[in-house]
Automatic annotation (TrEMBL):
This is Uncharacterized protein.
Length: 260
């Protein structure tokens, strides 16, 4: 099992994977963001045990948490703890959600694209959610914009995100038809799905997919959920290890293709 802990600082020149990616002895290098806990942690575990030829780069925004996760992997004893958090959607929380789920993913992807282009088997797996399905985007204009795969561009996605945040700021979510309480999470995942399709159309030799891991028992869900973290991680790992002729630009619920 080979795992390195890396602190990723998005929007900064300190992007540590660079020094690890130059390592030549591994057949496959997998960078897992949010790898210190939950599904990301389990993905690191499964990938690392899939073959000796895999270098897993476990990234965490907090270096200490990343090191603790590494320690857990080494001792194979997972500790669990409970956090209780009630989130009310405000403009700030909505912006944070879009920033983390969409722009965070986009910036990490952009930073890694030069390395992926050097790979003989480039794969991108975006962890989405069932809530990001187009049927849950209740603002008709945005839903239409995100549905039209032939016209999808990053500018279109930007327009949807900006329009949504304006509606949050103006307190006009209900009036515009958005599904108010969860709308930021829905939009963030719907645009990740759209971004996945845009990338897949642009990088035809890559295999780029989005996946809903299913309702998974993690700290945040107070360990309630339909699936264990092992079950939630299985699909993303399968997509990360897809053969060259595998699907691209698709959306999966675990290991089954589903509609956007
Ligand atoms: N669990 C489910 O039922 C479920 C269902 C559908 C989709 N998903 C998706 O699966 C993915 C993984 O979630 P999870 O269930 O494994 O949740 P989790 O256990 O809460 O893990 C989330 C990970 O993301 C990191 N993170 C949180 N905010 C961040 C930020 N602003 N910048 C950078 N990293 C940040 C966390 O780091 P810290 O430890 O530092 O906070 C942690 O490593 C998410 O995209 C989630 O939307 C989960």
């Amino acid at each position: 099992m080979t795992i390195r802990v890396v602190r990723v600082t998005i929007n900064s020149t300190a992007f540590w994977p660079i020094q690890v990616v130059s390592h030549g002895q591994y057949g496959l290098i997998a960078v897992v963001t949010g790898g210190n806990k939950g599904i990301g942690f389990e993905i690191c575990k499964l990938l690392a045990s899939s073959s000796d030829d895999v270098l897993v780069v476990l990234t965490a925004r907090d270096e200490q948490k990343g090191l603790q996760a590494l320690h857990k992997l080494k001792t194979s004893g997972l500790k669990t703890y409970m956090t209780k958090q009630v989130m009310l959607q405000t403009y700030e929380t909505a912006k944070d959600c879009i920033q983390t789920n969409y722009y965070g993913t986009k910036h990490v992807t952009e930073a890694l694209l030069p390395f992926l282009s050097l790979s003989s088997s480039p794969r991108i797996v975006n962890i989405s959610s069932g809530v990001g399905k187009l049927e849950n985007v209740k603002d008709k204009r945005s839903s239409q914009m995100l549905s039209d795969v032939n016209r999808l561009t990053e500018e279109v996605v930007e327009e949807v995100v900006t329009g949504f945040l304006c509606d949050v700021k103006d307190d006009s979510l209900e009036e515009k038809g958005w599904n108010a309480p969860l709308s930021a999470y829905i939009v963030s995942k719907a645009v990740i799905n759209a971004y996945t399709r845009i990338l897949a159309n642009k990088y035809l030799s890559f295999r780029i997919n989005a996946i809903n891991p299913g309702f998974t028992k993690i700290d945040m869900t107070h360990h309630k959920g339909t699936y264990t973290v092992e079950e939630g991680a299985r699909g993303p790992v399968w997509l990360a290890l897809l053969p060259d002729e595998g699907p691209s630009g698709r959306f999966f619920f675990q290991m089954e293709e589903t509609t956007f």
